[in-house]
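Morning run. Coffee first, then this:
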Amino acid sequence: MMNNYIKLLEIKGLILTYLKPLTAKEIGFYGIFGVAGSIIAQSYGGWSPAMTLLIILMGSDYITGILASLKEGRGIASTASFWGLIKKGLMLLSVLIAHHVDIVMNTNAVMIGSIYFWYANEIISLAENYGRLELPFPEFIKEKIAMLKGKEKHNETVK
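And here it is:
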């Protein structure tokens, strides 16, 4: 019993060694980010697992795109990265607008539909990046992506 108490005191000492009290500046800094995060989450109707997956897909696409560019020897172009981030921001803006359309229409379908649309977009982009990185990807998914790209090219020529 006494050994457990001594071990707890040792652990407490280790924790206090690595933790220091926050300064007023740090508290203010963290507080601002906490409030901003709360406002953003509330503007999307609260944070949902669907939004979490979208953010994960967006981050994965961005990272694999950078890795693919590095592998191809193109380096990291700051303008391409900038416009990639702008695109991600506009995707989130469309989800935000869809949420507010849902509020006005008293539904929950527009935001979820928007999120699912962006899921598909990000998964296709991830597959392309995997191809550029020469990573294995299921053949049937490659075929579906090629089919979608064929329809996309056909739609562009019809315009």
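Helices lie at 2-18, 24-43, 49-71, 78-105, 109-132, 139-158. Good start to the day.
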